[in-house]
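Give me a protein, keeping tokens residue-aligned:
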Amino acid sequence: MSGMILAQGTDIEIGHHITWTVFGLTFNVDTIAATVVAGGIVLGLGFWVRKRITAKKPTGIQLVFETVTTAVQNQVQSTMGIQTAPFVVPLAIALFLFLLIANWLAIIPTGHNPEYLPPPASDVNLAYALALLVIVWMHVTGVRKKGFRSYYHHLTQPHWVLFPINLVEEIARPITLSLRLFGNIFSGVIMVSLIALFPAFILWAPNVVWKLFDLFIGLIQAFIFALLTILYFGSVAPSEGEAH
């Protein structure tokens, strides 16, 4: 996806990437690099906390991990019960931390256009990939928990006449989940490009304000994606009574 904004006689290219073409396939290298960096940071922090975890004098990073874990566990417990689908807890935690760090990469300026490490979610390809991961896993879980016929029976509820509408709604889930994330992060990239048009002597003020707001938006979008992941799995997993 690409576009161009014309302002004050200057062309600003939006949505362009650093690309490599290998065997006829085009890869957005900046998105891949930012994804690897964000994933590496999450893994590094996880291994670091595991090595230094303590109950006597926990570090700040350990407290952050414990806070996130507790919040996710409470949400999963209230939605479906942890015993029903225990894997949802580490999945939601991983998605939240990955998206949080990935979104916050926007505050690191590289001085290159396009940026070497843009927020990966500003590339719709990553947003689609994450959404498909969640939705496909959700369907697999639903079939395993309830059986193929029992799970997809909801498409004919409350009446079989509504099957086409229910089917469209089901197909739209990964699209809406991905575009919600992509749209909010991509809009931040556009705003940074527009702010760059300000005169140099006042550029720092709107830039600082927007960077702070961008951090908040990145946090909210990571939280929403993780929360929707939990809710989607909660809609297909049986209750704890049914599981027993």
About this structure: Confidence is low (pLDDT under 50) at residues 4-12. Residues 3-243 form one domain. Residues 200-236 form the longest helix (37 residues). DSSP finds eight helices and four strands in the chain.
